[in-house]
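We close this part of the discussion by returning to an individual protein. The amino acid sequence and the backbone structure tokens for this protein are reproduced below:
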Amino acid sequence: MIKQKKKIRFESLGIETIVSNGIHYSWDGEIDNLHDHATQLRQRYAKKGFYKDNKDTYDDIEAERKQYGDKINGTLSRFYKFQLHPPPRSLGLYIHAYIRKGLSKETAIFVRGHEEAHALYCLGKAHLLGKEVDKICGTNGFTEEAFRMMNPIHDIALFELIANYGGRHALVLAQLAEKINIKPEEIIFVLNS
């Protein structure tokens, strides 16, 4: 059986990639309440037989809401379906990225790039971000190879490191496109705001 392919685009990173038809990516934009949006997504996918990567209950969303409140600027929701028996067989992955409404323009760009880099990592394609970083930094494929090596390692520190590169890369692209007026040395300060 030949797998059908399609393109998906990570707009803030300027990256387009080919994935199988069972993979879906959605940029949901700026959301009033991240926790409520996550709950709505989980309920919608549960009705279709998909499951979240951690729990079927909502305890994790409520615990996060209590711990962090509005301190979270963006997030990623992933839903999987894998069914061999009984037929019909199905396989699917839905990834949604979204950020909190009301962020400064620079922070919103950074957070979107950060979340899109998380999505690339989840798809096993972090090296594509590394390749784009290499183009800007002139590092001759070093970052691409480093991200390719790191991608299969499921470690939260690496996950966040690569995502922070995504946020910075999105800021650089926005600056080059004159969408924002920020000096390269100021990009690190957006990360800390």
